[in-house]
Every structure is written in structure tokens, then in C-alpha cells.
């Protein structure tokens, strides 16, 4: 049962919903069905380009590497 992040196209509300099966999602602020699923930053956590080691300092979590 994943939690999804949404943006309401009608009122601009950002919200999260715990989704069970084919549950219909509506905006909790304005009840609009005009919503878009956002790409969660949590789902991208840990995704890296190239190898897992920093090329300049040999650390696996260097904040200066791109």
C-alpha cells in the first residue's frame, strides 16, 4: 500500500494519499479529480549515476560530486 504524492490542478494543493488497490483519488481541499501524480523525492533517494564511489574523494556519499 504505497503513499503517493499528488498536485491538484484546480487549487494547487500538494497532498499525499495512501492508496489501496484502484482507489479513486480526489483533492482533500477542493474535492477536484483534476490531479497529477508527482515524482516522489523519496522514490529517487539512493539513485546514483555511474559507480557508487566518489571519484574525487573515494567516499560513497560525497556532497560535492555530481
Automatic annotation (TrEMBL):
<feature type="domain" description="Putative regulatory protein FmdB zinc ribbon">
    <location>
        <begin position="1"/>
        <end position="40"/>
    </location>
</feature>
<dbReference type="GO" id="GO:0044183">
    <property type="term" value="F:protein folding chaperone"/>
</dbReference>
<protein>
    <submittedName>
        <fullName>Regulatory protein, FmdB family</fullName>
    </submittedName>
</protein>
<dbReference type="Pfam" id="PF09723">
    <property type="entry name" value="Zn_ribbon_8"/>
</dbReference>
<dbReference type="InterPro" id="IPR013429">
    <property type="entry name" value="Regulatory_FmdB_Zinc_ribbon"/>
</dbReference>
Amino acid at each position: 500500500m504505497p503513499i503517493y504524492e499528488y498536485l491538484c490542478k484546480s487549487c494547487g494543493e500538494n497532498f499525499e494519499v495512501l492508496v489501496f488497490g484502484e482507489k479513486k483519488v480526489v483533492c482533500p481541499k477542493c474535492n477536484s479529480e483534476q490531479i497529477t501524480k508527482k515524482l516522489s523525492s523519496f522514490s529517487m533517494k539512493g539513485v546514483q549515476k555511474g559507480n557508487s564511489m566518489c571519484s574525487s574523494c573515494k567516499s560513497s556519499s560525497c556532497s560535492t560530486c555530481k
